[in-house]
User: What shape does this take?
Amino acid sequence: MIEIHQFPCLNDNYGFLLHDKTSGETAAIDTPDGDRYLSEADAKGWKITSIWNTHWHPDHTGGNLKVIEATDCNVIGPADEASKIPGIDCKLRAGDAISFGHIQVKVIGVPGHTIGHLAYYLPSENVAFVGDALFALGCGRIFEGDPAMMWHSLLKLRNLPFDTTIYCAHEYTQANAEFAITLDPDNQALIDYCEEIENKRSRGEWTVPTTIKKEMGANPFLRCDNAVLQTLVGTSGDAVATFAEIRARKDNF
Ligand code: ZN
Ligand code: FE
Assistant: This one.
């Protein structure tokens, strides 16, 4: 049994700490803000034993050195981005597995936002930490990969069990919803989801985490092989072209 502690960091990032009561281990998922991670762990009475980086961007690794200095934890992250990840000592590749206490963690390669981007999936807990690969109603910008690569990464996440809880790294949902509804205005699942988001944000509540099931029905970036959406976008029969078109429109939205 693990406990997941989520807290806002920087402008719109979320921080996550995972604690395994049995082993006493505590993992930090990325480190947007080292001081904040240390104080959150302290308040919980936990000591950070490892950092799991999803990708090299500074809003995900910027606190690594501060946390290492205070806790002497080890740092795991993508082998393909190792030169840009401060303090990394365990370099992972897609398909690797690590253990957290007695819990197995599967490492899923989700390149596109960056070339080595990893997601951490805990099958026994039904949770995945996806960094900037997938967002509620959105996905990461393609900085280092191409649309085909990113689409295939998202398919790997979509193939996780429906009830998998997805922890994304940013609260971007409201802006994503405003864009998604322009593409797919008659999708009832999306209409309902947008209303829920509107309500939650007006009360200052978080929209993260989400689930695969929820995203599959409404997130346009996970629906690029849907014939109705393809027709709406004007790219019938081609999932990659649909993805490329949607991503390009969102970049200019
Ligand atoms: Zn990023
Ligand atoms: Fe980010």
About this structure: The mean pLDDT is 98. The domain at 2-251 is CATH 3.60.15.10 (Metallo-beta-lactamase; Chain A).
